[in-house]
Amino acid sequence: MSRLIIDKIPSDHLFEIKLNIRNSFGNLLDSITGKFEGYADDITLFLDSEEIEWQDVRNIKLL
Asked: Which one of 6, 18, 41, 56 has the fewest beta carbons within 10 angstroms of its own beta carbon?
């Protein structure tokens, strides 16, 4: 899902975001599910008041 598409989605929709971050054992971290707060810029997006950097996002799914 591109940034331009996300800008058109109304706030309070549920997202599932798969992260591109690995733990100390080299395993990918679990996905995050939450409400999109309607705010995203070129560097970050906010999901349930949690700031997520775009470089850490592997996949976004609209629920």
From this structure: 41
- 32 contacts: CB under 8 Å, gap ≥ 6: 16, 17, 19, 47, 48, 50, 52
Residue 37 to residue 12: CA distance in whole angstroms: 6
pLDDT at 12 over 90: no
Q: Which two tokens stand for residue 12?
A: 């309070």
- Phi/psi of residue 9, nearest 5 degrees: -85, 130
Residues paired with residue 3 on neighbouring β-strands, in sequence order = none
Query: What pTM does this model have?
Result: 0.74
